[in-house]
Amino acid sequence: MNAEFIIFLVLALFVAVFSVMTVTTKSIIRAATYLLFVLFGTAGFYFLMGYTFLGSVQVMVYAGGIVVLYVFSILLTSGAKDTLSKVSKGKIAASLISTLVGLAVVLFIVLTHQFKTAIGVGDEPCENLITIDTIGQFMLSTDKAGYLLPFEAVSVLLLACIIGGLVIARKR
Amino acid sequence: MFDFSIVSQWIHGLLTSVMPEWAAVLIECVLVALVIITLYAVFAIALIYFERKVCAFFQCRIGPNRVGKWGLLQVFADVFKMLTKEIINMRNSDRFLHNLAPFLVIVASMLTFSCLPWNKGAHILDFNVGVFFLLAASSIGVVGILLAGWSSNNKYSLIGAMRSGAQIISYELSIGMTMLTMIALTGTMQLSEIVQQQADYGWNICRGHIPAIIAFLVYLIAGNAECNRGPFDLPESESELTAGYHTEYSGMHFGFYYLAEYLNLFITAGIATAIFLGGWAPIYFPGLDGFNDVMAYIPGIVWFVGKTVVVVFLLMWMRWTFPRLRIDQILSLEWKYLVPISMLNLVLMALVVAFGVHF
Predict the structure, then answer these.
(1) Could you say which of A108, B32, B147, B335 has the lowest number of CB atoms within 10 Å?
(2) Quick check: B22 contacting A, CB < 8 Å?
(3) Cβ contact (<8 Å) for A3 and B26?
(4) How far apart are the C-alpha atoms of B188 and B16, rounded to whole Å?
(5) Which domain holds residue A76?
(6) Same domain, yes or no, for A110 and A164?
(7) pLDDT tens string A129-168
(8) Are residues A61 and A15 in the same domain?
(9) How far is residue B47 CA from its own chain's centroid?
(10) ipTM of this predicted complex?
(11) Closest among B318, B91, B96 to B227, alpha carbons compared
């Protein structure tokens, strides 16, 4: 029982509690706020593992981007004061079944999969293990392990989204 | 130059000799947190006094001069007044979110504050992705402002929050772009290394000459807008929206917004100092050895705070000189001028670095 394990437990409890609160709360804007805490907790896991790049991305993209987008769209539409409708028994049953199926699938994969450890990764978390230099090199390299093609494909996808959004929002 | 890590390692060694490693780290974390909070409060009080005096002199007034010598105790009196005020709850509003919002803003501000490089070896958060983490941490504050506006159940607050959100999100773009420009020059994102390079080879604003100066100007404008300060203080424009998103806050909850505003000013200036003006590196002229030696005796923290205060003064000068813009003018300034300028500037910096025409 070392300090990292305790911090992990605290973070896990934090994420679990706020995940449940996100889906059970009646007010949509509170749900967005609880989601923000869940995402912070996830970023906390990355920082705990010493992977500061992914932690920063998590905070920047999800907390600073997606949640702000959610809150903005809730405020711009009239939905801010709306509350959830009463849950029916059919809904509870459906969500229970889908949750159980999802849990079973995830457990099956986690328990049967042989996780490979990347070269140089030890048991101890270590900051600066994977520096941002390395990530940048991989992201823009055309080697066997390079990610340039997916990187460009994603940017084409984003461009298509932007153009689509403009076409929809354009005044005719 | 004095290396502060000697002191921190000595403390660490002292603590680990009497207790296990994790307990030592825990105690160090608590100590560092106390230091940050104290510095935060002290700098906020100093900056509020500074701003009131600077503003007064720009408007040909005297400023606070009744409480204490030259009004030095005025801000302390204000703080005590704020601490004794009641925190009121609005009817028909979401209490939880209303009380949460100021904490989100102040947490974002404190996280960014702890990224500042104070001296050689005196960094609190010094990640490999430093600059990126800093931008990420500062983007949390927007959520707090939006929630504050919505949960106040007041249309002026909501309008203020929406303006603030639109403004902060757009100006974050040019801040990110100018940071990228300087990262292209330094080749690292770690703030301690960026400053160390400048101590070795000269300040970035001189090393990167034309693109660095353009980036510095763009950063100052965008930084002022990020802090919601005039001429970009639309979110709280007191003549039309009473006070924008923090209209309905009282007591220390209002105080948190007030503190965060001034500290964000200091942080913006501190980042400008660390990235463009050499951080804790002393001033250095090649050839003047005697002068350089004398300058190197001044401790790094004095250099850092001194340069930061100069940049803070520049930002205040900007605030009290220009009239407030309209919201469409603010957004078109960003999207039609600053973003294209900083994009071109990034290309220019890439060319400068590729052909090696920097110092």
Answers:
(1) A108
(2) yes
(3) yes
(4) 32
(5) 1-85
(6) no
(7) 677 777 888 888 887 777 888 888 899 999 999 999 888 8
(8) yes
(9) 12
(10) 0.81
(11) B318
